[in-house]
## 1
Amino acid sequence: MHKCKVCGYVYDPTMGDPINGIEPGTPFEQLPAEWRCPVCGVTKDDFVELE
């Protein structure tokens, strides 16, 4: 899982991101380059991997 450093949204690959058309089971690394945080709109560069 990856967490947004700006707003705290957690991307869970088991859930995907249905709001943005990302299917469940999609790893963070396979998200499109143009994908944005569905809460605050920042890019993938503003996410950190959770341990």
## 2
Amino acid sequence: MKFHYEFSVSKLKAPITHHQPVMMIGSCFTENIGELLKQNRFNVLENPNGILFNPASVADAVDSYIHPMPVNESQLFCLNETWHSWKHHSRFSGITAAESVHKINHSVQEANVFLKKAGYLMITLGSAWVYELSDKAAGDSTGKIAANNHKAPADWFTKRLLSAGETTSLLQKMLDQLMAFNPQLQVIFTISPVRHLREGVIENNRSKAVLIQSVHDLVSQQEQCYYFPSYELVIDDLRDYRFYAEDLVHPNYHATQYVWEKFTDACFADSTRQLLKIIREINLAYQHKPFNPSTQTHRQFLERYFLTATQLMNEHPELNFNKELQYFKTGIKPPPEN
């Protein structure tokens, strides 16, 4: 008896290895996969503008990385005693305008350098609904699309659904810019399985349909584009609310792990998947909490993994286990990073 519909996922023609930097941009599901990539020692840059849901904001963000222009304080607005940008997530907001400007400009410059050398750009689209700023919105931005609402009053926005044609045009222009900027770049599109139920069930499905149609139109015409079915794996393969968090909106840990396994199988080289097994073993050794750290057995345990991590770094200089090596050598873990 089958309890879910498992389907095959097409392979990425140029599989990912640890040699190529990977930029991630888009919805919160982007960051779920991005965190797993980082845990497995890939060189990853996640969401230089913060979480972005709609394709217009994604395309605008990519344009700013390719043609970086410094943001100044006049482009921000103040709400609830905090300075914000309509193009950025609230993690780029600041108590002072100068603080916000510094964070934004630093991130854009980092993204410009990273994107130029990246092997892959993974774009996760969440919603085709956009919120355009009304004449009541703070700042001189009437008619522009907000990437984040920053909990502003509802009458600051006008909501509309992008058409499939409009979405395809936005993303095609973005791809043209990307290929001119970094001709070797491979673009991986996926649709977020996060259900935007605040828009409404029917509205969420209309939105996902727009994104799916547009992305498949582009992938069918672009040799360097690939579609990974995150959305279909959760909605059609797992297809059960037990794979969602309590909010019934976000996929839970088990769903994310399932998508990750499918992603590694479809998008990684065989040698990379073998390497992940050793990396996982080192990660688990680092996380291990000894009952008695002063025993000879534990010292031998640390020595064994010090040699394993050292050998792996010698064979693969692109991998970094400096933090783990420090622990395996001294038995003392460094303080957590902020």
